[in-house]
Amino acid sequence: MIASLLGALVGSVASSGAFSIPHIDYTAILPELILIGGALLMLAAGALSVRHLPTFAYTVLSAAAGVAALVSGIVLWEKIHGKGRPFTAIAHALSIDGFSTAFVILSACVIIVSSFIADGYLRREGIAGPEYHALALLGASGAMFMAAANDFIVIFLGLEIMSIPLYVLAAMDQRRAESGEAGMKYFVLGAFSSAIFVYGIALTYGATGSTNLAQIAGYLANNVSTNDGLLLAGMGLVLVGFLFKIAAVPFHMWTPDVYQGAPTPATGYMAAIAKVGGFAALLRVFFSTFHSLTATWQPVLWVVAVLTLVLGAVLGLVQRNVKRMLAYSSINHAGFILLGLQAASASGISASLYYVFVYAFLVLGSFAIITVIGRRGDRDHAIESYRGLARSHPMLALAFAVLLLAQAGAPFTTGFLGKLYVVEAAVQSHSYALAVIAMLTGAVAAGFYLRVVFVMYGQGSGAGARADDGAGVGAGVGSAAVPGEALAGHPELAMASAPGGALEVAPGGAGGAVASGATATAGTLVAAPTEPDAGETAPAGAGGAPSPARALPFDLAPTTAVGIAVTVLFTVVLGIWPGPLFAFVHAASLLF
Amino acid sequence: MSVPASFYLTLSAVLFTIGAIGLLVRRNVLVMFMCVELMLNAANLAFVTFARELNDVAGQAAVFFVLVVAAAEVVVGLGIIVAIFRRRVGATADDIHVLKG
Known about the structure:
The structure holds 2 protein chains of 2 kinds. Chain A is mainly alpha-helical.
């Protein structure tokens, strides 16, 4: 009976002719498929292998999936250029254009760099298994779907595919209570914002009769309605959903807590990929779909951008925790990126796109260094932990200084150019007040970046003064200059900083903080990043009180060093020689 | 058939508001989850109503996507809750206050 019922049902559906299976262009979604396939492969390998595969194997797999996605993204880019015009795929649900492909390429870059950065952390903390990398890959595929979506439902799906792995990544560190709390807080507020977003989609659908972005744009272009509450409410709720994801004020409350609580490499990844996916969809929906309502949303975004810029910069000044500080910094950056959208011009979109590119690398590199400084246990995140870093680890301090100065907008870095382009776009669209406010908040925000730089390069005070505040680094400064002599006295410590190994040796009876690596370790960062960590261990100055938990050495894994080096090189090289990236971004926003 | 669409939309708006307020006011994490579900189902009701009004099947199809996403969210959310509260007694959000905000 059931079979006949089903048969009748299928027959009626088929006879009505309303449904036809859309042609699925697999090449259009190849980057996403590669990442999802990589994640599934990893999970299967983890489940099927009798003994645990080494963490490095998953890192290689993750990076390989990222490279494959990058290559297929570039192929897609060439295809669009060959055709000379963008196209839609899978029943117009996806829009494959230069804009989406640029974000696909960026997501692939993020996944490659972040899998290298996470590798050092995972090995240091002894977290085995494929979960971290698999979740990261899935999240990046969600961001790609958001970028390529040409339908509100696809944006929603992409948003969730991106967000749900991020919730889990934030909660991954079982040993710190903060991590679980961060995950839960992110989850509750993220689910809240998703629900608001879906309701906004429903109202927009009711007002325009479609969830397809192009059809909505067509409807809005052909039907002038001056007073459509349903549509405005829908657009407002959709905007709120996006603002939550990109951490714009007043929907930023979760950001500092989640950034602080999440495992540090996950924070960097989250900051990068959530901004990439969120801004990709936000820019497309508001610049393209709701283009005819620009006069309506522009003032709203003006207010949001001002609040975001000011609050991010001002509250960042009073933070003592570097992760919280960078969380407020990321809020400030979100304000800058909104500047480009608020301009509502082609050059504004291009500037925002450029800024997202720049920011993704900056934040990945910054959190990679914070991961290293956080030491085993991921706990040393007070600004004091950075005191004297320039002397104990010159290259690491230099890399962090470059990344922070770039975020502050120092010349000859990509950060400066990003700020320049968005402010230029704002000026071109006559938002002079907003441009001035943005530059002022940029100057205020420079205050907290520079504070960290000063702490790193400032005079380290006596070892005894540092011993009780969790610094440890300052204690190591005194004797870092004579590692050879110190090593002669303590040969058993020489192996203490081999990656992942022998950490128990360090807090021995030497009676002091141990600063690993010194110049030799940090030197591998730029000079020869692929070489094994040539760590030396220098027992700290005599005055340091024994505090074994804080005396752990830095463990700069070669993979992490490669990740940091890539982000620093990206920042500096493309800051001095901005042509290629700017041409790429310009072409991407032309093929919108 | 005689019930006008605006009734359904009003009900949907009321459900959504109850969910939103409940999520902000209630302190039990499980109740907060239920409030999120209420909001999502309010959106579903709006989708179905509009689909009927517009005589368009796409709105009804959207409901399936929302349902699946809601299920996935609950799976992850409950997983996180279990991970946090394995060593705790109740599920009250105010008890979790290691972080400032």
